Amino acid sequence: MEKIKTMSLVEKDQKNVWHHISPYVEEKPAMIAVKGEGAWLTDYDGNKYLDAMSGLWCVNIGYGREELAKAAYEQMKELCYMPMTQSHVPAIELAEKINEWLEGDYMIFYSNSGSDANEVAFKLIRQYHQQNGEPNRYKFISRHRAYHGNSMGALSATGQALRKYKYEPLASGFLHVSPPDSYRRPENMTVEEFNIMRAEELEQKIIWEQKETIAGIIMEPLITGGGVLIPHPVYMEKVQEICQKYGVLLIIDEVICGFGRTGKKFGHQHFQIKPDVVTMAKGLTSAYLPLSVTAVKKEIFEKFKGSEENLHFRHINTFGGNPSACAVALKNLEIMEKENLVAKSAESGEFLLQSLQPLAKTHPNVGDIRGIGMIIGMELVASKQTKKPVSPDFIGKIIQNCKQEGLIVGKNGDTVDGFNNILTLSPPLSCTKEDLELIVSVLKKVLAENQ
Ligand code: PLP
């Protein structure tokens, strides 16, 4: 009886629901989830899965937290909506809390998604330069392999060719440089030398492109969805130095790395840098409600102050800074603090990394394992000598076999054809010791069965 019900739900889903970024294959119906608790999801057939991706790298405090539901309920009863042309109490309190977490002095602009937050950053930085007497600064530089969102500006900044293919032409004025992919560095270079070289290439790009035209650089503290590419600290510190040298603003995209994901409150806090703009979403509410933020240094905001016509930032969205979303974010951060989840992320991530690391020596297809906090990437290669990526079928089978064993893992975004070979883990920061052990044991088993 249950089965019949499930079938009809699958049919209804296939008839009416257009899924995100997924091929439509009737024989491969989507998983229909009905419940989440801790790190675990239950589907309509009653199967349980440990979600080692926290959804899309976002359910940082885990599923099923009643306190967050209560915070949303209470706020909705009290005040369900207020446009951010004015203000409300949760928005004010959250802005203060975010500044505390950022250890900085930023103005907080609310939106709905990570893409929105980056779009806001691009628009306001172009406007800032105009109002700061440098109207020629309009270009943004980002990295190949990075993902910054789905809207025309954020997608233009994205460096994953397959995500843009068929949607071009996109916004103009977006340039890309190579990321520090240390695993694939030339054999005769140390990681540090290679990272310095990549930073110098960025400087060279600024010069070639006419330095007075560059408005900003956007980068994640590490490239996450593009393959878990963790820079040497010297890279980020040099990037900041270059930005300051050429009057270019540094936007750090913390959409994934923020809110404890990397074992610090924000990913950029691993480095000696102070970004001009920080964008954030996902872990801000642990994805219980949509909310994002563009945090902008006060010096930049100064140029938007005053009653003079056309000075203000002419940007609005209906839902950004929704009172219940802000209340949920506040409760989410309160729980992270109470349960010490940032420190736990560092500790649990280290456990995963240390437990999985031996596979890089023993398994013929595990070329590299890298991680920082609760983000792990396992680069799968057909040959360790050539570092040629494994086939999409191979990595697809690993993901499928993990799922059969009750474990959801991910892979890197569509960089270019054939370069989709990095298994990713981004479990809830609240994972128990048993959860972590299960992730390790399933991955070891599945990889041992596939080589
Ligand atoms: N920036 C990064 C680094 C992301 O990973 C994402 C989404 O995965 C975005 C921006 C876009 O966020 P959203 O999907 O909320 O628009």
UniProtKB/TrEMBL annotation:
Superkingdom in the source lineage: Bacteria
UniProt KW keywords: Aminotransferase, Pyridoxal phosphate, Transferase
InterPro entries: Aminotrans_3 (IPR005814), Aminotrans_3_PPA_site (IPR049704), PyrdxlP-dep_Trfase (IPR015424), PyrdxlP-dep_Trfase_major (IPR015421), PyrdxlP-dep_Trfase_small (IPR015422)
Alphabetical list of Gene3D superfamilies matching this protein: Aspartate Aminotransferase, domain 1, Type I PLP-dependent aspartate aminotransferase-like (Major domain)
PROSITE patterns attached to this UniProt entry: AA_TRANSFER_CLASS_3 (PS00600)
One function term, GO molecular function aspect: pyridoxal phosphate binding
CDD domains listed in its UniProt record: OAT_like
One GO CC annotation: cytosol
The keyword RNA-binding belongs to this UniProt entry's keyword annotation: no
Assigned protein family: Belongs to the class-III pyridoxal-phosphate-dependent aminotransferase family.
Full protein name: Aspartate aminotransferase family protein
Organism lineage string: Bacteria, Bacillati, Bacillota, Bacilli, Bacillales
